[in-house]
Amino acid sequence: MGRIILPAPLPPYRVLTGMADRFGRTLAYRREAAGDLAGEITGVTDGAGREFRLVLTTQAQRAEEARKPHTASLSSPDSPRPLSAPSFPDTLPGTEYGADSGIRLSAVWLMHDPAYPESLPGAPLARYTYTEAGELLAVYDRSNTQVRAFTYDAQHPGRMVGHRYAGRPEMRYRYDDAGRVVEQLNPAGLSYRYLYEQDRITVTDSLNRREVLHTEGGAGLKRVVKKELADGSVTHSGYDAAGRLTAQTDAAGRRTEYGLNVVSGDITDITTPDGRETKFYYNDGNQLTAVVYPDGLESRREYDEPGRLVSETSRSGETVRYRYDDAHSELPATTTDATGSTRQMTWSRYGQLLAFTDCSGYQTRYEYDRFGQMTAVHREEGISLYRHYDNRGRLTSVKDAQGRETQYEYNAAGDLTAVITPDGNRSETQYDAWGKAVSTTQGGLTRSMEYDAAGRVISLTNENGSHSVFSYDALDRLVQQGGFDGRTQRYHYDLTGKLTQSEDEGLVTLWYYDESDRITHRTVNGEPAEQWRYDGHGWLTDISHLSEGHRVAVHYGYDDKGRLTGERQTVENPETGELLWQHETTHAYNEQGLANRVTPDSLPPVEWLTYGSGYLAGMKLGGTPLVEYTRDRLHRETVRSFGSMAGSNAAYELTSTYTPAGRLQSQHLNSLVYDRDYGWNDNGDLVRISGPRQTREYGYSATGRLESVRTLAPGLDIRIPYATDPAGNRLPDPELHPDSTLTAWPDNRIAEDAHYVYHYDEYGRLTEKTDRIPTGVIRTDDERTHHYHYDSQHRLVFHTRIQHGEPLVESRYLYDPLSRRTGKRVWRRERDLTGWMSLSRKPEVTWYGWDGDRLTTVQTDTTRIQTVYEPGSFAPLIRIETDNGEREKAQCRSLAEKLQQEGSEDGHGVVFPAELVGLLDRLEGEIRANCVSSESRQWLAQCGLTVERLAAQIEPVYLPERKIHLYHCDHRGLPLALISEDGNTAWSAEYDEWGNQLNEENPHHLHQPYRLPGQQYDKESGLYYNRNRYYDPLQGRYITQDPIGLEGGWSLYAYPLNPVNGIDPLGLSPADVALIRRKDQLNHQRAWDILSDTYEDMKRLNLGGTDQFFHCMAFCRVSKLNDAGVSRSAKGLGYEKEIRDYGLNLFGMYGRKVKLSHSEMIEDNKKDLAVNDHGLTCPSTTDCSDRCSDYINPEHKKTIKALQDAGYLK
C-alpha cells in the first residue's frame, strides 16, 4: 500500500470502506456517522490488525479552544505565530478550490496493536496545530517535541513564508504579486533570488552565481530545454510531445538520446555520444525483463503473475531465484543463488525481518519494539546485542551480552553530539546551524572544519592548529588545495566536468580522454606518462608507461562474459624490444560463477574449496590438498590444518576461539611454541597478548593511539613508551628524552628524532636522512646519509646510502602503470681486483609479479619465491620456492610451438594462424588429460592424423622440485614462522608492534621479506615497500604523503597510530584489523546487513545512473540507527570496498566491472567515499529520500518511478 492512508475523494454516491492490494494487504476505514464530522474517516485498521484513531477538529472547535484561558495545549510556546483568540474565526472562507469545511487532522493515536496489546503509547504518534486561517502551524512527534514549524503571510492565506526543522534556523521566502517565490533566505547558508521572464527563469545565489533555465511548452508540459550554468556552460534537453525526455546535450555539445515506448513511456534504449547503445525490454506490466549492454552482454529478470521478481540473471550468467510463501507474500521467503545455496527469511506482520537463516541452517534473530525499532540481535554462538532508544526514537545506548554499554547523546536537531564508550571516554561533535560538523573532540584533542555559505569545506584545522584550505569554482568543483604543510595543488576541468589538468607545485599533468570519456593518456610536464587501450567491447586491454627507461605494461584478458581471466605484466627494453620480464596470472570460474581457481605464473593451479555461497573450506595446489578449515556456526575459522596429512592428524593444526563478544580469544597450535591468548578491554582494544615465552601489554590514549608496550618474560619487564604530538606525529618520549623541548610538528614533517635528521622537498617527500650527531659530539664525517629520488608520480626510483662521500649501496626501482613495483636493481660496495672498495659492476636484479594488489612472485638470479594469500586478504598463506635450475628443467615447448619451430622442411619454421594455435593448445590439454573429445578426433581425422601420432610429438612435462611452507601469522597477518609440510619450523622471527624485526632464526637461509600486511622489506634501504608508498618502521610512518590525500586521513604520513589493531596493506588508508577480521562482529554484521541489503536492491532494480544514489541511501540507512559503532563499521566497510575496487582496478555497479586507470580509480574512490559520508551524516530529522535525491537525474522519470515503487523515493 506504500504511503497511502487516506483515499482520493470519490463521488458522493460511493463510500469507500476499505482497500486491498494484490498481496491481500488491507486498510479498513471507519467513518463518523453523525455530527460535524459525519462521513469523515476517523479510524483506520491496517492489515496487521493495528487500529489508529484520527483526531479531526473543526474550525469552530479550534476557535473555541483558543478562547479558553490555557491554549498552550494546542500550541508550543516556541510556535512561530501564537494563537490569538480574538482573531480566530469560527469558519473559514472559501478558496479558489471551493468551500473549506475547516476540518483538520489534529492527532493520530494508536488504539490497538495485537502484537503489543498491553503497552499502548500514552501520547499521540503525531500531533498537528493550525493557525486561525486553518494553515498547518506545527508538527509534533510522539515525544511532544516540535519537529516542524511554519509561518504564513497574513495577507495571503495559505502562502508559506517560512519553515524550519527542530533545532534548525528558519528558512524564509518572499513572493511577487503573481505568487511566485522571488527570494529564498537561508540563515548561515545560501540564499537565492528568482527572476521570472517569458520562458526563462534566472536563479542567483548569495555568492552571486547565476543559473538560467529556459523553458518551452505550456501548462503541465512546460519543460527546461536549456540550462545556462554558473560558469557560462550550457546544456540542452529535448522532449517528445508528451513532455518525456528524449535527448540531452552536454556543455561540450555531445548528445545522449533516449528511445521511449510511445504508450508506456518506458525507456527502450539509450544511445551515448559515442554511438554505444543500451537496450531495455519490458513485460506487459512495464517491468524490466532484460538489459542488453553496449558490449553485447545481457542481464535478465523474470516475474510471476502477481509481478514479483522470481529470478534475475546477471551479465555474467549467474542466476538468483526468489521464492515466496504464498500468493499474498510480497517479501521472499527464500533466495537461492547461483551456487545453489538457499537463504531463508522470516518476516513479521509489519514486514520486519524476524529471522535470517543462512545456507548452512544457521540463524540470526531480530527483535523490535512497538515502534518498529530494532531492540535486539541474536546470532549463533551466543552473541547478542541490545539497543535502547529515547522517546523520540533516537538510539541512546547499545549493550552487548557481557553488559558493556556505549551511550549516545544528541542535540535538539537530532545530531549525534557525544559518544561515551564503556570505559567512560567521551568523544564530542559540534555542529553549525545546518547540521554540518564544525569540530570533533576526543581525548582533549580537537579537529575543526570551516564552511562557506554554499556548505563547502574551506578550511580544516588539525590537532596541532595547522590549516588546510580549499577553493572551488562556480560549479562547486575543487580548484585549489593548500595542505597543512603549505603544499599547493590545483585542478582544471573541461566543460563536462572531467579533470583535464592538475598542478602539484612544479608538476603539470594533462589528462586526455576518448569520445566515451575513457582516459587514453596523460602527460607530465610535457613528457608522455601512462597510456590506456580498450577493445571493441570497451574493456581495458592494456596500460603502459616508461619507468626508468623501461617500457612497462599490464595486459588484461576476459572471457565471453566479460570476466577477468588473466593479467600479464611485461617489462621491455624500448630501444631493442627485448622482453626483460614477464609474469602472468590466470583466473577461472566454476559453473556457479565463483572465481575459485587461479593459476600463478609457472605454478600448478591453486583451487579454493568452498561451501555454501563461498565460505572457505580448503585449498589445493595442483590437485593436492594443502590446507583445510573448520568453521563455527558464524562461519568463523576455528581450525586450520596444513601438510600432506591436512585434516586428520595434520602436522600443523591451529585452533582459534572467540570471546562471547566475538573477538579473537586464543590461537593454539599442536606445538605450544606459537600459542597466543588475547585480552581485550571494554572498548574492544587489544590490551594483552600472552604466549609461552612472553606477554605484551598495550596502553592506549583516550584517542585510541598506542602509547606504550610492556614486555613481560622471566627476568624481564620492559616498558617502551610512544609519544606523539596532537596530530599523531612521533615525538621524543619525555621519559627517555627529558631534555627535549619538541611539542609538535606543525607541518607534519618530522625534522629529526633520536637517530636521524630528515629533509623534505616541496611535495613533502623525504629526500635525505642523515645520522644525527648528538650535542657535544665532534663530527667525524663518517655519518651515513640516505638520499631518495622520485619520479613524477612520487614513486621512489633511486636510493643511495653514502658514507665518507662514497656510496655504500645504490638501488633503482621500476613500477608498472598501477604503481606496483615490478623490478629493482641493487649495487652493493665490494672490493674490486685492485683492492679498492667500489660499487659492484653487475647489480643484483629482482623481478616482481602481481595478482591485483598482492605481490605473488619474487624472482632473483637463483630462485623464484611465490606466495598464495588467504582469499580476500593480504595475509600470506603458502610459500612456494623453486630454484631456477628446476624451473628451467620444467620449461617445455607447447605442441603448437614445437610444430611451428620444426614444421618447415628448410628449418626456418612456420607461423600458424591464431585459430590453429588455439585448437592445438586445446588438443594438447585433452591429450595430457587422456580425455580427447570426439570433436577433436574428427578434426584430426580430417587432417589425416591420429591421437597417437600427435601425442608422440608432445614434449614430456618435468615436475620441478618445490619447497612448500605455510606462513604462520599473527592476528594482523604478519608472518611469525614458516612451517614445512612435516610440521617443522624452517624460519621464525619476532617483531615489535610497528613491524621492526627484533630477532630472526633462519637456519635454512630462507628469504622472507614480508612484514605487516602489504609490506616487503628492502635490505638496502631498511624501508618497507607498501604498495603505493614506502614505510619507515623506525618512525612508524611513510616517507611520502598519501596519494589519495585527505581521504586516507588528516595526517598524510601516518600509518595506523594503533598498529596493534590497524593495518594499511595498500599504503593508502588505515583499515582496522577488527573490521577485516573479528573485532566488534555485531556492529560489523549490522552494517554489513544494511549495506548488502541495499546493494542487493541496487542489483535487483538494475537502474543505470544510480550508483551514487544507492551509495548515499545505504549509508543514510545506517545513520538512522544512530549507532556510532555501526556507523564506524559501515565507514570501514566503505573504505574496504573502495580499497578492494582500487586494488582490482574495478569500477561500476553490475556484473563485470570496468577497468580504470590508477588516477581514475582514485578519483572514483574519492567520489564514492564522499557520497558515503554524505549519507552517513544525514541529520536525524531528514529523510534518506530527501538526503539522496540529488544523486538522481530529475529527467529520468522511469528511474524515479522504479525507485518510488521500491520505496527509495517519495
List keywords for this structure.
RHS_repeat, 12% helix, repeat, mainly beta, 60-stranded antiparallel beta sheet, RHS Repeat family protein, 13 helices, 15-stranded antiparallel beta sheet
Layout of helices and strands, plus pairs?
Elements: E1 18-20, E2 26-31, E3 41-46, E4 51-57, H1 59-67, E5 104-112, E6 126-130, E7 136-140, E8 146-152, E9 160-165, E10 171-175, E11 181-185, E12 192-197, E13 200-205, E14 210-216, E15 223-228, E16 234-239, E17 245-249, E18 255-260, E19 267-271, E20 277-282, E21 288-292, E22 298-303, E23 309-313, E24 319-323, E25 334-336, E26 342-347, E27 353-357, E28 363-368, E29 374-378, E30 384-389, E31 395-400, E32 405-410, E33 416-420, E34 426-431, E35 437-442, E36 445-451, E37 457-461, E38 467-472, E39 478-482, E40 488-493, E41 499-504, E42 507-513, E43 519-524, E44 527-534, E45 540-547, E46 550-558, E47 564-572, E48 579-588, E49 597-599, E50 606-611, E51 615-621, E52 624-631, E53 637-642, E54 652-658, E55 664-669, E56 676-680, E57 686-690, E58 695-700, E59 706-713, E60 716-721, E61 723-724, E62 730-731, E63 756-760, E64 766-771, E65 785-790, E66 796-803, E67 806-815, E68 821-831, E69 837-839, E70 844-851, E71 854-859, E72 863-869, E73 876-883, H2 884-890, H3 895-902, H4 914-928, H5 934-942, H6 947-951, E74 963-969, ...
Antiparallel strand pairs: 1-2, 2-3, 3-4, 4-5, 5-6, 6-7, 7-8, 8-9, 9-10, 10-11, 11-12, 12-13, 13-14, 14-15, 15-16, 16-17, 17-18, 18-19, 19-20, 20-21, 21-22, 22-23, 23-24, 24-25, 25-26, 26-27, 27-28, 28-29, 29-30, 30-31, 31-32, 32-33, 33-34, 34-35, 35-36, 36-37, 37-38, 38-39, 39-40, 40-41, ...
